[in-house]
């Protein structure tokens, strides 16, 4: 059957090649439909519980979309006339930012006081442009005494402060965020130019979403060209054939163009995760092409004609390439078990790319190779013995055959030891940790967290159950008890809600007596204070960010220091237990980006475990059927699954921290590392069917596909290492983990798999372990060469 397919592809190579180019041109028109969407919402399915709670919170209160100016004073004090003037200017100008809905800062903070029967509300800074140093000192003292400011908008030491601009963005945020950030960046630049004593950091969801978008575009525009260059250099050096390198690059180009065109027709948006699909597809195309071209070059070295050498290469590799493409696609499709849509899309797009690579390798590569060979002669070394790779692999195979028993047990022991470190890995998923420490957005987030307020925010909507119910003394008392409990938690730095306001109003209405800094005694008092306060507030600074329209519910924001994902979940679970024990009628679902990403990371790990199990079973069944051996199909599970597990173990030894992206690495690498196993096992079984002994069959495998496996592994590793250049840490860690796994898989397949096959062969025959003398080895190698030429 393989011979028939090889003959078919060679006989009709021109028709198939032209047809493939036409198909590529047709499907690549879908590229015009691609667009970027890097909103944080892409990480969550519509039915995600935390996302639904987040949307409900935004519907009841103000939107969470915002821009934050963090003003850092180089003189260690923002309360100077010049800096307060800059803060005042930024506060006023922030109302002009597109979609601006509310601006909160130190300068427009509302101070309350009673005036006879009226409640008076004044800005903390009335005229920031005309302040003396005495005025600034007085403002500093007042500001640092406000509990609702410190650790929220103001650093407790007065060295930094925030200006928070709430935005009411449209549903399609792509152009809106660009418009917002253009104005914000211009304001930042002007403020720093006019006041050399400050540094302005830009943060907030708009800044984060823009950073996501920029990273996705940068990865797509920079990583692919870098990968092309690496592939060009590596393939030229390793195969030493410019024609073969050019042929591979053509297949890469048409495969990627077709894959992304299909993606456009599917209506999928490009985001910071699935943007790496073209790079992954490129590396996988190389695997198919290299196996065909390396055996083709071996045929030429042995004196075969180009047509005969290429046809034989297709015959030898057809089954293995089909199996590796199928199993690789299965591995990537298993990423659809992921609870996060971008990783599911990455798996689907890459599976499509694997299929395109398989089709174009068989239908287009023969036409290109034969066409290039006419105008660009393919030169090969005269003597295969001069090939360094062949020499190394020949020596390697001799070593493994002679010492297969100690190699087996040593490799197994080391593997199990490394795998035992997996439990040391701890999930730490934070939206700001997705950015490299070298990026402006990450540096802004780190500064904000270390100097002003924590980045971990958990929000609750406490519902009284009735319109106006937030003024009921019983409700207020239980809400206060909840806040008091939260403030007692070690990780919490600030809790903010309407309670701060109502207690301050109660004090104001009792002559500013500190003893009255407490909740009102009656509903009538609370309602009157609330009404007076809202009537006194300036436009845009009402209580809609703290209370629902009908005053039935109140928002509580808990700000904590930087916590790991499980610590965030544990903190919220403690709060849920507090509700159960003390106020079940107020129980509210915690929400906020920190909690949302913590939960998605945990669920992604659990869902991907199921995906991994399904992928391993399907791949093993596929190999059982293809190899027609239950034993070898089952055996393949070890070299397929162990490398990814070992990579996780190595990560546990060195880093001990994983994020959302690492959960999908097993499925990604499972499909890729199967390539080595399939080629090794299929060639080994073919050798055994030809009557070779187990030891001779191992030598046969190393001679026939050893170089191809080494070249593909080196190229794949280099390709995925390109991802480590990404400023998006999810992509960077994925690339690094996959590269580690591929390297481990190569050594595992070169050490553990052949020694395991020899152990099984000797055990089955009830003989001593097979060994070869040098005289016995050489005929085996000659047999291989003769078989290749035939």
UniProtKB/TrEMBL annotation:
Keywords: Cell membrane, Membrane, Transmembrane, Transmembrane helix
Gene3D superfamilies for this protein: Multidrug efflux transporter AcrB transmembrane domain
InterPro entries, sorted: MMPL_dom (IPR004869), Mycobact_MmpL (IPR050545), SSD (IPR000731)
Disordered: annotated span: 766-790
Domain of life: Bacteria
Transmembrane region(s): 12-36, 222-239, 246-270, 276-297, 318-337, 349-369, 406-423, 608-627, 634-654, 660-681, 701-723, 735-760
Database matches in PROSITE patterns: SSD (PS50156)
Subcellular location(s) of the protein: Cell membrane
Main location: membrane
SUPFAM superfamilies in UniProt: Multidrug efflux transporter AcrB transmembrane domain (SSF82866)
Membrane topology: Multi-pass membrane protein
Keyword DNA repair applies: no
Residue stretches making up the SSD domain: 246-371, 633-759
Protein name: MMPL family transporter
